Amino acid sequence: MAGLEALTLDLSLTFQRLHVSYGVIPAYVEAKQTVLFLSFTVVIEVKKTFDFIKCLSAHLVSNLWIEASRITSEYSSLAFEESTQFDSTNFSDDTKRKLGRVGSYILEPAEMEELSNIISYMGNFYGSFQACRETPTGTQECMYLEPELTDLMDQSRDPEERLWAWKTWHDGIGQEFRDRYIRYVELKNKMARLNGYTDYGDRWRQKYDTTTLEADVDVIYEELKPLYLQLHAYIRRRLYETYGDVVDLTGPLPGHLLGDMWGRFWINLETLATPYPNRTSVDPTPEMIAQGYTPRKMFDIAEEFYTSMGLRPLPPKFFNLSMIEKPDDRDVVCHATAWDFYDGQDFRIKMCTRVAFEDFLTIHHELGHTQYQMQYSHLPVFYKDGANDGFHEAVGELMAMCVATPKHLYEIGLLGVLEDDPEVDINFLLQQALNTVSTLPFHLVQDSWRWKAFRGDFPVERWNDEYWKLKEEIVGVKAPTTRDSMKDLDITAIFHVNQDYDMIRYFMRTVIQYQFAEALCNASGHEGPLYKCDFYRSKEAGNLLANMLSMGSSQPWQDAMEAITGQRDIKVDAIKNYFEPLRVWLEAKNIENNELIGWTTSH
C-alpha cells in the first residue's frame, strides 16, 4: 500500500538526516543511535518479510511513521544541544566538520507532528491517487500514475486524451495538496530560522558550500541556453507536425505534449523527433524483448557493467531484499530509489521495472547510487553521502549515458551492427539531449520557484500563477488549460516537491556528469569525440571513480571534484563539447525551417 511505501521512504530520509558524532558526543548518544538504527531496520525487515498490507492498516502505518519521526527529531535536537557544549578551538578540522553535521533545532512537538503528518499524507495520497474516466461501454476505467498514466503519456498521440490525463492528475494532486503545502512552507521556514538560516531555501542552498548558488546556477544556464533554445525550436516543429494547431509555432510548448506527466524528460518524444528515422535505431527495446530480457536479467547485466571496471559487486542479499518489479498485491510508489541501510552490507533498490530501454538505463542509474553507497560504507555515518547531492545523481547518469552509446549496445549484443555514420550519431545525440539538455530549465524552475516561495517573494494567492510565469519565461512551456491560482498548485504534482526533495541536484548533475565522463574517458585511453566514449571494462576508469566515491562527503565537494577531474569548479565545457555536433545540426535545421528561436509569452 502507498502508506507503507511512504513510511519506508520517509524513515530512510529521516535516518539519512540523523547525524551521530562518534568519539565526540557522550556514549549514551551513540547507544541511543544504535537502538534507533536497530528499530529502523526491524520495521523495514518486517515490511519485506511479511504480507504487511494484511497486518497493518494505512492509519497504523501513518502513526508508525509519525512516531519514528518524533523519536529521530527529538534525538537530533538532543545531539545538537550536546554538540554546542564543546570548545572546538583545538579540535581537528575533521572533528569540526563532524560537529557541524550533528543534529539541528526542531519545532515544538505539536508542530513537528503536524509537519510529519503533512508529508506523510502527501506521500500516501500521491501513491494511491487514480485518474478515472468512463469508457465507451459505460464502465469506469481508473489509472494509477505507474504504469497506466505513465504509459499513456508516453504512447498516446491523441491530444485530448493527453489533456484529460494531465488535467486530472494536476487537478487531483495539486488541489489536494495546495493548503497543506502552504503550511509545509511555513513550518519548514520556521525550523530553518531556528537554525540560523533566513528560510528553508537558504538551508537547501547552503548544502553546496556557497552563498551564491542562486546566481551561480543562473550563470551556468545562460552558458547552455543557446543549445536548449535550438532543441526547443526543433521539438516545437515536430510537435506541430504531430498535433497540428494545438502547437503554436512561435509560442511555448503545451505542457501535456512533452512525453511525461510533467514535461521533465522529453525522451519519449524520440519516436516523433528522430532526425533520421530510417537509420539504425538507438533504442534497443525491441531487441531486449526478442532476447527474452527480464527485470532480473537487466539488473544482472547492469551489475556486470560495474564489476567489469573493477567496482564492487552487489551484496548477496540484494535481490532477496530489493523490490525490482511492481507487486500485484498492494499499491506502491514506483519512483525508482536506491537505499542504504547504513550497516555496510544492506543496500537495496525499489523499482517497478519494465522490459524497456528507458528502465534499463534507470537500473544503471540506480546502481550508480548503490555503488556510491558501497564505496563510502567504511566512513562514519556523517560522511555516508555524496560530496553534494548533484554528485550522487551525476554518477548514476554518467553510467546510464555510457551504456546508451551504440558502441556499448553493440558490445553487449543489443545492436547488430556498429556503424560509423554521422546520421546515426545525430540520432544518438538527440536521444541524449532529450534526456538531459531538456531537463536543465525544468529543474532550474522547480527550485527557483521554491526558493522564491520560501523567501516570500510573492503572496500565496499568486503561487500557481508565478509558477507558470517562470515556466513560460525560462522553460518555454505553458499550462495546457486554464489554471486557478486560488485552487491549483501544480508544482506539487511531482514526487520530489511533495516529498521534500530539492531538485537543483538534478540541474547540477546534468553538468557534472559530463565533467566526470570526460575524466573517465581520458583515464580509459579513449580517443575521439566524447559522445563515442564507452569506458566499459576499463579498470583505470574504475579506479579513478572509486577513489572519488570512497571519499563520500568527508571532504568539501570541490576536493572530490578535483580528485576525479583535476578541476575545482563546475564547468560547462564538457557538456558543450559533447553536444556541439548536435548544436550545429539543430541550428542548420532550424534555419532551414525558418524557426523562431525562443518564444512569445502571455506574461
From TrEMBL:
Which keywords has UniProt assigned to this entry?
Carboxypeptidase, Disulfide bond, Glycoprotein, Hydrolase, Metal-binding, Metalloprotease, Protease, Signal, Zinc
Give residues annotated as binding chloride: 208, 505
**Which residues are reported to be glycosylated?**
320
Q: Where does Zn(2+) 2 bind?
A: 365, 369, 393
Q: Where does Zn(2+) 1 bind?
A: 365, 369, 393
EC top class, as a word: hydrolase
Please give the Gene3D superfamilies that the UniProt record associates with this protein: 1.10.1370.30
Q: Give the GO terms filed under biological process for this record.
A: proteolysis
Recorded superkingdom:
Eukaryota
What does the UniProt cofactor note say?
Binds 1 zinc ion per subunit.
This protein's GO cellular component annotations are:
plasma membrane
CDD domains linked = M2_ACE (cd06461)
Q: Where is the active site?
A: 366, 496
User: What are the recorded GO MF terms, alphabetically?
Assistant: carboxypeptidase activity; metal ion binding; metallopeptidase activity; peptidyl-dipeptidase activity
Cofactor(s) this protein cannot do without? Zn(2+)
Give all cystine bridges in this chain: 132-142, 334-352, 521-533
Pfam families noted in UniProt: Peptidase_M2
Write the Enzyme Commission number(s) for this entry: 3.4.-.-
| Family the entry assigns | Belongs to the peptidase M2 family.
**Protein name, per record:** Angiotensin-converting enzyme
